[in-house]
């Protein structure tokens, strides 16, 4: 039996902010869930199954699927927790998609959330890494990313200013997003003037720690037409998780024919092959990419095939990825403006859906019909989804 | 309706989860950490099928799943593949204090890199592709921190 085609028919997101002290975690989840149900004009009873995710150690609650039932709406329903680090939100989206595509469920709610304010983010992130080989010497997420930035600059000749262009772009875009956590216009000089956290990564290059939640309703092709919003169809998904230890992405990628960022490149090759993407810059109208820091907005563009290796600084400086450019990247302000980690990947998918549905408000890319959404996390893991307004001829995987 | 936040202070409860663990290092981890602790030697493992020397050691090749040959002796020196200098003092994560280097090192004889701390360097002395060497701790107890840090090899580019 062929897999069902799957459409996104409802999207809900909470205000993203540094500390949502006004709500308990379960209530935060509920805010996003109610917004998604209202958006799809559904009730809790209409939902067939739920997929939920966050990073357990950020809130210190391990049975999130059980604990959150009152807020998620899972009372008396199938629920499954998925937790894959930074990719959690995109994995939750893919998990909900798989549920519906299988033909076993018609309406599945995906939920991603986090309250980073409730713990020590860096201390908690450490617990995701190997106690023998990584933890004793691990410098946290910022220093880990700085290793990538150093390598990227050494191999391509890119500069800190090139990266600052990405930070300026995403931060400026956030001014159009009423849900964004950081909404600030900073120029290159301002970004360059922020203090170093771990050379060459500065405060202005990094994402914040955010509280927030997102919920998305996925529906089967059999009923997707019954909702008030035109479905945003999932055209294809792919993910790759390669290697395990912190050091692996920087050198071990070159072992055995590994290339630049193998997880992203292999996911991209599979996804573009399935969906028929040969020139992403021309074919995608908009991209919502999980860029946790500015240098990612250079290097990942290359691994996603938007330009040749080392070509990203010129691409970004050309304005092609700005609002009004050929393929605007992160009209929402992206991860640099809001990073409630478990919600972050799902927000990329939600924003992509709103864009192709023409419902993105002040951050709308006019006429957008095909969007790329990505998740990034763990040890350079990669989730990718293509979302489009046109109904695909069949489920292509 | 009045906003409850204006008339009530939000209650915040402090918590701390401190759980003891006793992780088994397994065969490969035990052999590796004992050699590091007792003899200041670095051991790798080699996949005979892929001809890759893994350091840190792996029992099985993660790609072809062949059992690796144990062990390959590695040098206490190698190449600095990439690096950073962390500026923020965060005690649990920075055993060397406020400003410390941090890098991926490929030991001579190994095909894969591993993560360790860097010290004893001046501004500009850390170079991608540069040579670094291990400095061992006097008191060693069978952990990656039995190597105190790596430092640039002097007089070598």
Q: What does the model show?
A:
By secondary structure, chain A is α/β, with parallel strands linked by helices. Chain A has helices spanning 25-39, 56-59, 64-67, 69-72, 88-101, 121-126, 140-156, 160-173, 188-192, 248-251, 262-275, 280-283, 296-303, 312-317, 334-337, 341-357; strands at residues 6-13, 49-53, 79-81, 107-115, 196-198, 201-202, 211-220, 232-240, 286-288, 370-377, 381-388. Chain A has 2 domains: 6-121 and 211-226, Thiolase/Chalcone synthase (Peroxisomal Thiolase, Chain A, domain 1, 3-Layer(aba) Sandwich); 132-208 and 235-388, 3-Layer(aba) Sandwich (Peroxisomal Thiolase, Chain A, domain 1). Chain A is built from 16 helices and 11 strands. In chain A, helix 5 (88-101) crosses helix 16. Chain B is mostly beta strands and 157 residues long. Chain B has 2 helices and 8 strands; from the N terminus they run H-H-E-E-E-E-E-E-E-E. Chain B is extended, with a radius of gyration of 21 Å. The relative contact order of chain B is 0.16. The chains are: A alpha/beta (397), B mainly beta (157). Chains A and B meet through helix 6, helix 7, strand 5 and helix 10 of A and strand 4, strand 5 and strand 6 of B.
Number of helices of chain B: 2
Instruction: Provide the CATH superfamily of the largest domain in chain A.
Output: Thiolase/Chalcone synthase
Count of strand segments of chain A: 11
Q: Percentage of helical residues of chain A?
A: 25-40%
The first-to-last residue Cα distance of chain B is 71 Å
Do you know the CATH topology of the largest domain in chain A? Peroxisomal Thiolase, Chain A, domain 1
Order of helices and strands of chain A: EHEHHHEHEHHHHEEEEHHHEHHHHEE
By DSSP (H or I, 4+ residues per run), the number of helices of chain A equals 16
Structural class of chain A: alpha/beta
Q: Describe the largest sheet of chain B.
A: 5 strands, antiparallel
What is the helix content of chain B? 10-25%
């Amino acid at each position: 039996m062929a897999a069902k085609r799957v459409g996104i028919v409802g999207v809900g997101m909470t205000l993203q902010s540094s500390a949502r002290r006004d709500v308990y975690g379960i209530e935060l989840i509920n805010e996003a869930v109610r917004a998604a149900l209202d958006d799809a004009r559904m009730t809790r009873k209409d939902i067939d199954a739920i997929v939920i995710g966050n990073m357990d150690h950020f809130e210190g609650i391990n049975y999130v699927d059980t604990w959150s039932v009152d807020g998620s709406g899972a009372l008396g329903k199938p629920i499954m927790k998925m937790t894959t680090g930074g990719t959690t939100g995109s994995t939750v989206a893919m998990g909900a998609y798989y549920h519906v595509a299988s033909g076993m469920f018609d309406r599945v709610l995906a939920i991603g959330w986090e309250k980073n304010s409730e713990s020590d983010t860096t201390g908690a992130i450490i617990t995701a890494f190997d106690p023998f080989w990584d933890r004793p010497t691990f410098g946290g997420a910022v220093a880990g990313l700085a290793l990538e930035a150093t390598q990227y600059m050494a191999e391509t000749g890119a500069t800190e200013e090139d990266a600052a262009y990405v930070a300026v772009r995403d931060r400026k875009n956030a001014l159009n997003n009423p849900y964004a956590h950081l909404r600030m216009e900073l120029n290159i000089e301002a970004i360059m003037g922020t203090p170093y956290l771990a050379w060459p990564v500065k405060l202005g290059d990094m994402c914040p720690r955010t509280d927030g939640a997102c919920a998305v309703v996925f529906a089967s092709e059999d009923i997707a037409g019954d909702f008030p919003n035109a479905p945003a169809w999932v055209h294809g998904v792919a993910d790759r998780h390669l290697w395990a230890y912190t050091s692996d992405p920087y050198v071990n990628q070159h072992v055995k024919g590994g290339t630049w960022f193998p997880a992203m490149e292999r996911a991209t090759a599979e996804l573009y092959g399935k969906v028929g993407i040969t020139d992403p810059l021309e074919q995608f109208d908009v991209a919502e990419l999980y860029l946790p820091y500015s240098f990612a907005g250079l290097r990942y563009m290359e691994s996603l095939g938007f330009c040749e290796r080392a070509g990203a600084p010129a691409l970004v400086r050309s304005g092609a990825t700005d609002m009004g450019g050929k393929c605007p990247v992160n009209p929402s302000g992206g991860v640099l403006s809001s990073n409630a980690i478990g919600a972050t990947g799902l927000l990329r998918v939600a924003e992509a859906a709103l864009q192709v549905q023409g419902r993105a408000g002040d951050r709308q890319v006019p006429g957008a019909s095909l969007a790329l959404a990505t998740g990034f996390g763990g040890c350079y893991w990669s989730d990718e989804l293509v979302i489009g307004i046109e109904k695909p001829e069949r489920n292509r995987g | 309706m009045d906003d409850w936040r204006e008339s009530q202070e939000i209650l915040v409860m402090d918590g701390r989860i401190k759980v003891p663990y006793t992780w088994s290092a397994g065969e490969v981890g035990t052999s590796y950490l004992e050699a590091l602790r007792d003899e200041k030697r670095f051991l790798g493992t080699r996949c005979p099928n892929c001809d890759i020397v893994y350091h840190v050691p792996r029992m099985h090749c993660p790609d072809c799943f062949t059992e690796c040959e144990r062990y390959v002796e590695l040098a206490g020196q190698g190449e600095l593949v990439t690096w950073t200098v962390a500026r923020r003092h965060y005690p649990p994560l920075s055993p060397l204090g406020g400003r410390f280097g941090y890098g991926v090192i490929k030991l001579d004889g190994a095909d894969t890199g591993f993560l360790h701390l860097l010290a004893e360097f001046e501004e500009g002395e850390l170079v991608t592709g540069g040579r670094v060497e291990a400095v061992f701790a006097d008191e060693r107890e069978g952990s990656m921190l039995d190597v105190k840090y790596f430092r640039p090899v002097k007089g070598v580019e």
